[in-house]
């Protein structure tokens, strides 16, 4: 074969290679676009997405360490699409928080683990404080007049509580010792209590009366009653409060749980409680970052969101006739 023929053959192979790579790239972009659409919109209009099968795979796995979502591919709010199979994070030998744990902690809380088809916002609009997400897929749909809500942390925004009263006709018990109000009844369905939640029963340095969730349920006569929705925005007290809930065994009586998580885990117990939530059947169906509370990590130099509202459903209720 002549030299000219060899060059033509090489040119032909190069063209074929470039075309092939272009086709693969376009296919990947199309698949990623579909995946974004599914995970952002609840897979409502995508026939090939088998929600039942996804639920079976997601819900029946147990976890002993913090994991990214059990899916091989998942939607990450910080990094858009991330194909991650990294090992679960662990504390370093000296007990300090490592950059690996920080990255995996934020990644975990921002990854969806449950495909909620009917999600609504209860309270203030999408970008404002006071509103929280609810999953209304059965069996999490609220039964008007038969639903019970605990709302910890009110400040001056009652939009979530008013919504649960007026729109869902739920009984709502609100708690906030920081606003200086005595117990009162805001409406026929809304009860305010001058109490706060913590990891133990105590009066703190500000003279606030604080109790564990189990103690509060006993005080209100709800010891064996299921909470349809438990909401906490309690400025760092979520960590000791959750540890107490685990010890008391009261989380099995919670259908939906939403909390604002502050900072990153600072000790083994904080990491463990995230693990325990997964083991107890709680799956993340929505996360909202607080864009007004972000900083540059000293460990990773990445932008981190120091407050994230994380919403869970308890999948154990999927197995019950409720």
From TrEMBL:
InterPro entries: Methyltranfer_dom, METTL24, SAM-dependent_MTases_sf. Keywords: Membrane, Transmembrane, Transmembrane helix. Residues 106-296 form the Methyltransferase domain. The chain crosses the membrane at residues 6-26. Coiled coil: none annotated. Pfam families: Methyltransf_22. It comes from the Eukaryota. PANTHER family: METHYLTRANSFERASE-LIKE PROTEIN 24, METHYLTRANSFERASE-LIKE PROTEIN 24-RELATED. This is Methyltransferase-like protein 24 isoform X1. It comes from Lingula anatina (Brachiopod).
């Amino acid at each position: 074969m002549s030299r000219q023929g060899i060059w033509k053959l090489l040119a032909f192979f190069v063209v074929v290679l470039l075309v092939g790579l272009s086709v693969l790239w376009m296919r990947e972009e199309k698949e990623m676009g579909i995946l974004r659409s599914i995970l952002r919109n609840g897979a409502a209009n995508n026939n090939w997405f088998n929600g039942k099968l996804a639920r079976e795979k997601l819900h029946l796995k147990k976890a002993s360490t913090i994991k990214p979502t059990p899916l091989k591919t998942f939607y990450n709010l910080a990094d858009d699409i991330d194909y991650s199979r990294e090992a679960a994070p662990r504390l370093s030998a000296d007990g300090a928080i490592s950059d690996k744990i920080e990255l995996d902690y934020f990644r975990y809380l921002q990854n969806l683990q449950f495909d909620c088809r009917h999600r609504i916002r209860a309270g203030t609009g999408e970008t404002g404080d006071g509103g929280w997400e609810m999953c209304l897929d059965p069996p999490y749909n609220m039964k008007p007049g038969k639903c019970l809500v605990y709302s910890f942390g009110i400040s001056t925004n009652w939009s979530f509580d008013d919504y649960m009263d007026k729109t869902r006709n739920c009984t709502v018990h609100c708690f906030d010792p920081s606003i200086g109000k005595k117990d009162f009844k805001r409406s026929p369905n809304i009860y305010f209590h001058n109490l706060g939640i913590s990891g133990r029963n105590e009066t703190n340095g500000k003279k606030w009366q604080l109790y564990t969730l189990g103690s509060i349920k006993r005080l209100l006569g709800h010891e064996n009653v299921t909470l349809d929705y438990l909401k906490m925005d309690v400025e760092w007290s979520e960590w000791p409060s959750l540890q107490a809930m685990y010890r008391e065994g009261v989380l099995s009586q919670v259908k939906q749980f939403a909390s604002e998580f502050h900072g990153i885990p600072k000790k083994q117990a904080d990491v463990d409680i995230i693990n325990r939530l997964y083991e107890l059947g709680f799956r993340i169906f929505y996360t909202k970052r607080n864009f007004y509370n972000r900083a540059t990590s000293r460990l990773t130099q990445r932008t981190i969101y120091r407050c994230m509202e994380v919403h869970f459903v308890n999948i154990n209720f999927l197995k019950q006739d409720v």
